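I'd like us to work through together how a protein chain folds, taking it slowly. To get us started, please write out a protein record for me. Label the sequence line and the structure token line clearly, so we can match residues to local backbone shapes. Once you have written the record down, we can walk along the chain together.
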Amino acid sequence: MNRNDGPFALGGRPLSVAWDIPRCTTEVQVGVRPEYVKIVKDPGPNTFPGRLRGVSDHGAQRVLEVEVAGQPVRVKTPREEGVPVSEEVFVHLPRAKVLPYGNGKLVLRS
């Protein structure tokens, strides 16, 4: 994820996070729990193109392994939603669930 003293970006696309990160933070990462990540049909805010790399069966749920901008992203989905037909998918990261990490630690809201 890039910041370069401006908005955050993932794969050259804007990425909105749950809250601001102090400017003095040098190393920035984000975390999103797999149950909040969604496969969607159309591009939009906080939505990124990805490539389906694998599917793991976990009983009533499946975990999809998706590569987004060179980064692994896991998507937990109910079995009844099925698996995308195409390898090319769009992954939505809900802003309120994109938690910022700075210098290896969760950045807490101030």
About this structure: The first strand starts at residue 9 and ends at 10. Residues 100 and 108 are 8 Å apart (CA to CA). The beta strands are 9-10, 13-14, 28-31, 38-40, 47-58, 61-68, 71-78, 88-92, 99-102, 105-106.
